[in-house]
Automatic annotation (TrEMBL):
PANTHER family: L-SERINE DEHYDRATASE, L-SERINE DEHYDRATASE 1. GO terms for molecular function: 4 iron, 4 sulfur cluster binding; L-serine ammonia-lyase activity; metal ion binding. Pfam families: SDH_alpha (PF03313), SDH_beta (PF03315). This is L-serine dehydratase. It comes from the Eukaryota. Residues 9-18, 306-323 have a biased composition (Low complexity).
Length: 541
């Protein structure tokens, strides 16, 4: 950084996001950091870069220097560069520079705005300050370079009219829409912005989240199981108790239902789409609509939610279970002692169509929930939808329990390994989503803590070594089908665990560490670079 330039963060550190195992820090993060609403096709390559750009221009505004900016340069490195075009990374960055967020952007007008920026070579910083900006020259994909801290790196630099550097920052998109900044190193070796756009608030939130703050802290699966045993709680109840630090029981319930509403909407939109093909060079045909017509005839009679879920997703006062939630404060909390359910599995094709529908919406840039990433966004909604349609007798509470249980497992992977395909390959995306779904399905089926942990372990064990090799950098082949297989594996893993007593040889902690080691040993070309595997063996024409 040149003398006189401004770095928009706290004291510098060079610690790598993938370095320490953070032995002294718990795994607890908010459920609503793991599950957040955004746009496709990628949480690491679309959502994360948009957030990073939004944070940068937000800091320019906060430091009252945005009016001094005359030129902006964006450099994109590593996996972000190599698969960026197929993942929509440049477009996401442009929208972030204009002040948009993945949660709030109007997807219907996004492409027109991007086209206008390219045509006019002008961009609005934070929607307030217009400068000349030619995306072909000022947004540079550095195909042959990587920043040392993480494969998904980007640098934004602002210059004055005289050409002096005014501000610069490096950001790293580490999966699931989480954004790391190398200059905001916090306690315990972590430096996550999480989903906060205000850097000052993000720093405070990170410092506050230490061992003394978490109500029921846990560092790994063994710790989590001990907490459950000591407190007489389910996994969902432990997560709920920790979540109460940040929001009320009513807010937790409502946010879970909001997340499910978006998940269910993405299933519906994918099934009802009238677009014959997905965007991009591959000409991939949408399959969810035809599968829907064959398998789900009558399940979606209109564009409304299916009758069995309409009340849980759109209102909080119609069903008897929801009336109980309003009357009884204790009912807002996840319950213990679930009745053990037996399941004669209906056709697993239902799982496949649900997952495919979500990931086709994601591939088309539609609105989805990172669960825990966009590339794996179809697995958890598919398994939860399957459970709600064929098993559930109490949808509202089941949605909350399912999502909180899944979140706990996601936290363990995030702390113990990574949910970034650029670090772990697809085992860190679809593999983690499969593990989360298996655990959650086992939990709402009435499984014991041991059976839930076993389900999560099985879900990952048979995804170990899964590579990320998207053809032409698009989140389509093999990603869409892979989500369908991940959902089927999750239910199968849960059923295997539920048919045993919970005793098993391989633990969840062992399989998480194995996943981490496998990801670190995996060749670079198999970690979201499109330089190996299917990406080089499938012809593009």
């Amino acid at each position: 950084m040149r003398p006189g330039s401004r770095n928009l963060s706290a004291a510098s550190s060079s610690s790598s996001p993938e370095s320490s195992k953070k032995e002294d820090h718990h795994a607890v993060v908010s459920t609503f950091d793991l599950f957040s609403i955004g746009i496709g096709p990628s949480s690491s390559h679309t959502v994360g870069p948009m957030r990073a750009a939004r944070i940068f221009v937000g800091d320019l505004v906060a430091h009252k220097v945005i009016d001094q900016v005359a030129k902006l340069r964006v450099d994109v490195y590593g996996s972000l560069a190599l698969t960026g075009l197929g993942h929509g990374t440049p477009s996401a960055i442009l929208m972030g520079i204009e002040g948009e967020t993945p949660e709030g952007i109007d997807t219907s007008s996004m492409q027109a705005r991007i086209d206008n920026i390219h045509r006019e070579c002008r961009i609005q910083l934070a929607s307030t300050h217009a400068i000349d900006f030619n995306p072909k020259k000022d947004l540079i994909l550095q195909y042959g370079s990587s920043l040392p801290q993480h494969p998904n790196g980007m640098r934004l630099t602002a210059f004055t009219k005289s050409g002096d550097m005014l501000a610069t920052n490096e950001y790293f998109s580490i999966g699931g829409g989480f954004v790391v900044n190398d200059q905001t190193q916090m306690a315990h070796g972590e430096n996550l912005y999480y989903k906060q756009y205000d850097s000052d608030k993000a720093a405070v939130a990170r410092r506050d989240q230490d061992l003394a703050v978490a109500t029921l802290p846990f560092t790994n699966a063994l710790d989590l199981m001990k907490v459950c045993e000591r407190e007489g709680m389910s996994i969902a109840q432990v997560v709920h108790a920790n979540e109460l630090q940040w929001r009320s029981a009513t807010e937790i319930r409502d946010k879970c239902l909001d997340i499910w509403k978006v998940m269910d909407g993405s299933i519906r939109n994918g099934c009802l789409s009238e677009e014959p093909y997905l965007p991009g060079s591959l000409g991939v045909k949408r399959r969810a609509p035809s599968l829907y017509r064959k398998l789900l005839r009558g399940l979606y009679p209109s564009t409304d939610l299916s009758p069995s879920l309409q009340s849980t997703a759109t209102t909080t006062s119609t069903s008897s279970s929801q009336q109980d939630l309003v009357r009884d404060g204790e009912a807002l909390r996840p319950r213990n002692g679930r009745k053990v359910k037996k399941l004669l599995l209906p056709a697993l094709d239902y799982l496949s169509v649900y997952a495919i529908a979500v990931n086709e919406e994601n591939a088309a840039g539609g609105r989805v929930v990172t669960a825990p990433t966009n590339g794996a966004a179809g697995v958890i909604p598919a398994v939860l939808k399957y459970y709600l349609e064929f098993v559930s007798e109490d949808p509202t509470n089941d949605i909350v329990d399912f999502l909180l249980t899944a979140a706990a497992i996601g936290m363990l992977y995030k702390r113990g390994a990574s949910i970034s395909a650029a670090e772990m390959g697809c085992q860190g995306e679809v593999g983690v989503a499969c593990s989360m779904s298996a655990a959650a399905f086992a939990a709402v089926m009435g499984g014991t803590i041991e059976q839930v942990e076993n389900a999560a372990e099985i879900g990952m064990e048979h995804n170990l070594g899964l590579t990320c090799d998207p053809v032409d950098g698009l989140v389509q082949i093999p990603c869409i089908e892979r989500n369908a297989l991940g959902a089927v594996k999750a239910v199968t893993a849960a059923q295997l665990a539920l048919n045993e007593d919970g005793a098993h040889r391989v633990t969840l902690d062992q399989v998480i560490e194995t996943m981490r080691q496998t990801g670190m040993d995996m060749q670079h070309k198999y970690r979201e670079t499109s330089l190996g595997g299917l990406a080089v063996n499938v012809p593009l024409c």
